[in-house]
Amino acid sequence: MIKLNYLFVLGSTLLLIGCTEQSKQVTQKPIKSNDVISIQQQGTFAVGGTVKKSPGEFDPIAHGAFNPSNQSNVGQTLHGDHASVLYQIPTEPRNLPLVFWHGYGQSMRTWQSTPDGREGFQSIFLKKRFPVYLLDQPRRGLAGQSSAPKTIEARTEDQLWFGIFRMGEGVNFYPDIQFSKDPEALNQFFRRSTPDTGPLSINLNIDAVTALFEKIGEGILVTHSHSGGQGWSTALKNDRIKAIVAYEPGSNFIFPDNDIPDPIAYVGGTLSAKGIPAEEFKKLTKIPIVIYYGDYIPETEVENPGQDQWRAALRMAKKWTKAVNDAGGDVSLVVLPEIGIKGNTHFPMSDLNNQQIADLMYDWLKEKELN
C-alpha cells in the first residue's frame, strides 16, 4: 500500500486527485479552520460480502455485449453484500483506531461534516491523532451492490423522521435545539438519507463489520442508533473490538436468555429484547462500553410517537446496562441533559455542540486508557 504524506486543511477531509476546476465547486461554505491534519495513509476498500453466480458457462462472444433489453446472465457472477470503508491514518497515530458505523437510513456521511458545514467526528478525531475508519454497511450507500432484489419506494416522509430524530414536531423545532435552524442545514440533512438497496440483513451487517476488524486488527467501535445493537452482537463474534461507544441505540438489545426483560410498549410499537446464552453474554463484560442519549426523551409515556419510542429505548438501555454490570461488566450510560448538556437531537455528532460531545467521548476514552 502506498503511503502518502500530506497536510490536510480541514476544509477538505479527502485528497481529491485529478479534479477539474468545475468539480471543485461546492454548494456549501467550506469548513474554516487554522488547524491542519497530517495524513500518512488513506484509501478505500470493500470488506466482507458474497458472490452470486448464475448457472451455466459464460460465452464472451454470445454474451459479451451489454444489451439491457436482452441480457443473458448465464455463467456470470455478481459481487455484493460487502461493506464499503474509507480510512485515514494520521502521522504519529494512536494505537487504537476508531471505526464509525452509521444508523438506519444513513451512511458514513453521519461522521464526516455536519449538515451546516462544520467539522464532523472524522476531522475532530483525526486532529486527536486517531486513525479513523468510516463504513457504509452492506446494501447501503457506497456499498449498494446487493445480491438480493428490493423495490425502493419514493415515500414522502421527511416530517416523520424529523420527529423520530427528535428535532421537533412537524416542521417546528423544539425550543433550545442544538441543531442549526438554517433552512439549508435541514435541507442538507434530509439529503443525507439513503435507502437500502436490498433486504436489510442484521447478520450480513455483523459479518461485514466482523471482517473489517479481522482485517485492521484491534480498534474501538463507535455506533449510532440502529447499529448499536448490531455493534454488541459484533463484539460477541470478534475479540478485536476493545471498546464500544454507542450513540442512542434503539433496538437489538441482547440479554442472558434466563433474564430477558418484558417488552416495552410505546406509541406505535413494542420494543423487545433478544436472549443469548449467559456464557456468551459475559463476553460483553470484557470491554468498556459507554452509551449516550440526547434531549427531549420523556420519562413517562407521551402521545408523541417520535419521543415515546426513545423513552422505551432509554428504559431498555438502562435495563441492559444493569444486566451487563451485574455480570461484572463496565457500562456507563450518560443522558446528556442529566449532566447539564441540553438540546441535543438523535444526531449529537451533527449538532451545534458536536465538539463538546466529541470531547466527552475523548475524556471517556482517556479515562479507560484507550487514547
TrEMBL record:
Gene3D superfamilies: alpha/beta hydrolase. PROSITE patterns: PROKAR_LIPOPROTEIN (PS51257). InterPro entries: AB_hydrolase_fold, Carboxylesterase_BioH. This is Alpha/beta hydrolase family protein.
